[in-house]
Amino acid sequence: MEGSVEKAQGLMKLCDQLKEEREMLRKQNDNNHWSQTVELAAAQEKQMEVCTVCGAFLIVGDAQSV
């Protein structure tokens, strides 16, 4: 069993490094997720204009009902 302490210490150091890397990747993923959500919401936002007759908001390019 000699030398097992050094081997265990090396493995613990590796575990700590991997935990730090995992946390860093999680933070990057969270930031990336929010930026994608904002971009998606902006892309889905409809362009609107004000009707010159009644002042109601109209969706640009929407078919007018008869």
Automatic annotation (TrEMBL):
It comes from the Eukaryota. One of its GO terms (molecular function) is mRNA binding. GO terms for biological process: mRNA splice site recognition. InterPro entries: Luc7-rel (IPR004882). It holds the Pfam family LUC7. GO terms for cellular component: U1 snRNP. Belongs to the Luc7 family. This is Luc7-like protein 3. It comes from Diaphorina citri (Asian citrus psyllid).
